[in-house]
Amino acid sequence: MSDLTKLTLAAARDALKKKEITSSELTGAYLKEMADAGALNAYVTTTADKAQEMAKISDAKLQKGEGGALEGIPLGIKDLFCTKDVPTSAGSHILEGFVPPYESTVTANLWRDGAVMLGKLNNDEFAMGSSNETSFYGPVVNPWRRKGSDARLVPGGSSGGSSAAVAAKLCLGATATDTGGSIRQPAAFTGTVGLKPTYGRCSRWGIVAFASSLDQAGPIARDVRDAAILLGSMAGHDEKDTTSVDRPVPDYEAALGQGIKGLSVGIPKEYRVEGMPKEIDDLWTRGIEWLKAAGATVKEVSLPHTKYALPTYYIVAPAECSSNLARYDGVRYGLRVEGRDITDMYEKTRAEGFGAEVRRRVLMGTYVLSAGYYDAYYLKAQKVRTLIARDFAEAYSEVDVLLTPTAPSAAFAIGEKSNDPLSMYLNDVFTVTVNLAGLPGISVPAGLSAEGLPLGLQLIGRTFDEETLLRAAYAIEQAAGFTAEPEVWWRA
Amino acid sequence: MTTMVSDFEASMRKREPREEDLIQGQTGDWEVILGLEVHAQVTSKAKLFSGSSTKFGAEQNSQVSFVDAAMPGMLPVINRFCVEQAIRTGLGLKAKINLRSVFDRKNYFYPDLPQGYQISQYKHPIVGEGEIVLDMKDDRTVIVGVERLHLEQDAGKSLHDQHPAMSFVDLNRSGVALMEIVSKPDMRSADEAKAYVNKLRTILRYLGTCDGNMEEGSLRADVNVSVRKVGAPLGTRCEIKNVNSIRFIGLAIEHEARRQIEILEEGGKIDQETRLFDPKTGETRSMRSKEEAHDYRYFPDPDLLPLEFTQDWVDEIAASLPELPDDKKARLISEYGLTPYDATVLIGEGARADYFEAVAKGRDAKLAANWVTGELFGALNREGHSIEETPVTSKQLGELIDLISDGTISGRIAKQVFDSMYKTGHDPAKIVEEEGLQQVTDFGEIEAAIDAVIAANPDKVEQTKVKPQLAGWFVGQVMKSTSGKANPRVVNEILARKLGLSSDG
């Protein structure tokens, strides 16, 4: 691994500004790492020519002392973001051959600020999964391995390509999306930082939709500072997404230095779930001590409707996805399997184009919206969702931020849970509440499991208070001093 | 699209059945119950959720944005003007405007529906209950309740006749804003249903919210038809989809009502179903049964926030409304002393009423109404011209009436002048002048003409002395010899004197 890829995004940015390095060098170093990391299957598309071209333009700007906040910074893009003239698959066979003639708002914001695109990152098909095993382009392999084992582990999902690429230093940072934990859980599984912003903070325009009321874009990065920098560029109001919010984007990086003295941290008692591994529980306790030591006060709070969150999520998200995915019908773009009539064509195209998990969720979603079931499932789930949001609002009348584990376990092996959807869905138990309530959440690497795998702690903030969230995350990061890195085994 | 959410029977207006409206069957008289769902294309430059043009007749698939084609990651953004148009329409229907409404997704698969769902409003429409007053031919008015009005997207168009084995799709119409206006089941005859669509169209045109062009599909109606014996509970209804002319609406209802009566009288029962009207056969046929009906799986569209606006905005729109047909009718009656019939004829199109008012201003209103509704509208109908295409301006017609009123020409000559005006577009004074049509009021000239007739018909003179009614014959002769130009009043006066009759006889 070259020294260039060891720099964090913030360090690389500073070195570029000082002209100590060039974007072309940096981009070249990453392209080389990517070329050697086929075993991880993190990228589904490499855009080497485009990257070099963008780097050259950035270098010219940097040379003149110009350029944006991310000038010359090479990034990986989750393949759920539509990128102009670059194939976008959402990890699905049904989008085979689809090349968008438009650029998503979030990626356009990154390019506006000078970032360089390295390629498109693998993900669970249509972001439906917690292990990146549902991708049509095959599973992503976690750069981390258990001590003394070469079993291939999952990098989490759905943003598994993003988390693996950041952990393996195949990019300086990555875009990701989070519908029920798809940024935070993969970050926890790979020792990276994953930030899911408040719903409405980033535009959803041009991101292939999974569940519109839950989807939110955010960064996966090496550390909290890098995540803050990336969010600063990704966020912002977009007239093309009426659910995006028109409020100024603060200087998130500047918030980090403010410390957490006097911050009130809540520990939701309902998150102490039955059967939680001791090492996760211990990590959580350590996190509490770290925050206290940094000057925060900690108190237990109650989020009484937590136990309904997972079933609620698995009604709302499939319901929306069943409708959002109706457009993939083989008529206008992507895969088409010919049939004897239009219905036959639809059925064949969608049967072949969608993987098992996507089909399962479309079926569940169709079911819960059907006449006679709507009130019992969808409507009730919406009511519970309101109650869950109210739980948080009440907690935030007492505390500024909440601390929980990110996931109930460390990374598991590929194939271990793929035949057991329920156990797979349980991975989201600590993260889905945040999406249902539209809140910002962040996962910070905080330690290693007994088997030597990274574990993450999650902080949950108030709506649009990413600054406080980042301050607290930074305090955890400082205290945890997590410096472990995966041993490089994948290089070709 | 069946979105009658309120209880059908409870929402009906109480009406005593009218003898004339009943349909005679083998077993007795039947009452027809009708409700209409009208889809009116919103007059707007851009579509409901995208900036694409809505112009009719453009090249296929030339007005399709990424949103309209449902490309991945595309999101709808509501067009404020379409919302304004819906509010304006609601106000025109004297309906409740809902300051908060919700867009829902109606899910079904069809190639001309790119998203796989139509964005519509289901439980919470933008406009609630209102009413429409129908002006029937016999000066009777019927009030029909409006259940609701909601905004929704139109679908694209499937073309099945372009290729032997394939269907093509034109997405130009995909995403165009429609208002679905749902009536209560308050109509009892095909004539009332026709009057309803006619009046609704007039209101929409006054408001400028829909051009009402049924040939281009800007206005389409789904007709709900059921029949019952007088006083019996409501029968099962059938919905006839997408009837695209007022005449067809009448024909479809008449056929469908008779079909249902026949089935019931033979002891059968009506299946609730969706039917299509075939203009070629004049019949309706089954499209899909209740069992085949789609489960649309409506749910609130998570891409769109609830539609909310202020009462201030509604008030602002209300203040900008034009005079509505019913108000105009009342004013024409009170201000000009018109009959309800004339007033109804005039308000059918705003431009017609405007024309009339321009002519009537400062003139004899009854005379103006006769000329506008009689001569002018007659000529326009004959020539297939719209009021906008009239070759005779309101100013010219007014001048013609002035020529009659000041005695320059007689009413009879005026008709001749009018025909000439319609053909040439010339001013009436010019025509009268050039063709020498001025009325002769010169006593000497008329007296000479009368003397000539009397001299030539001594026998008639004698008879008239006994039978004064015969004086009319002399008037006719004089008019004939003066080519109709003699002032009839003067002719009568002189004749009476010459024949020794009282001039007011």
Architecture per CATH nomenclature, i.e. the level-2 architecture of chain A = Alpha-Beta Complex
Structural class designation of chain A: alpha/beta
Largest sheet of chain A: 8 strands, mixed
Taken together, the total number of domains of chain A comes to 1
**What is the oligomeric state here?**
heterodimer
Number of helices of chain B: 15
**Class computed from helices, strands and strand pairing of chain B:** alpha+beta
**End-to-end span of chain B in angstroms?**
69 Å
List the uncertain runs of chain A: none
**Whole-number tally of structural domains of chain B:** 3
Helix content of chain B: 25-40%
Mean pLDDT reading of chain A:
97
Name the chain pair with the biggest interface and residue counts per chain: A-B, 44 and 29 residues
Number of strands of chain B: 16
Number of strands of chain A: 11
Whole-number average pLDDT of chain B?
A: 91
Placed side by side, the strands forming the largest sheet of chain A appear as: 4-6-5-10-11-9-7-8
Helix-strand layout with pairing:
The complex is a heterodimer of chains A (492) and B (505).
Chain A: H1 9-17, H2 23-36, E1 43-46, H3 48-63, E2 74-78, H4 105-112, E3 116-121, H5 160-167, E4 173-178, H6 184-190, E5 193-196, E6 216-221, H7 224-234, H8 252-256, E7 264-268, H9 278-293, E8 297-301, H10 309-324, H11 342-353, H12 356-369, H13 375-395, E9 401-405, H14 421-425, H15 432-437, E10 441-448, E11 454-461, H16 466-480
Helix pairs in contact in A: 2-3, 5-6, 10-12, 10-13
Chain B: E1 23-24, E2 29-41, H1 80-92, E3 100-101, E4 104-107, E5 117-120, E6 130-135, E7 141-153, E8 157-159, E9 168-170, E10 177-183, H2 190-207, E11 219-229, E12 238-243, H3 246-265, E13 273-278, E14 283-289, E15 299-300, E16 307-308, H4 311-319, H5 325-336, H6 340-347, H7 350-360, H8 365-383, H9 394-405, H10 411-424, H11 428-434, H12 443-456, H13 458-466, H14 471-481, H15 488-499
Parallel strand pairs in B: 12-13
Antiparallel strand pairs in B: 1-2, 2-10, 2-11, 3-16, 4-5, 4-15, 6-7, 7-10, 8-9, 11-12, 13-14
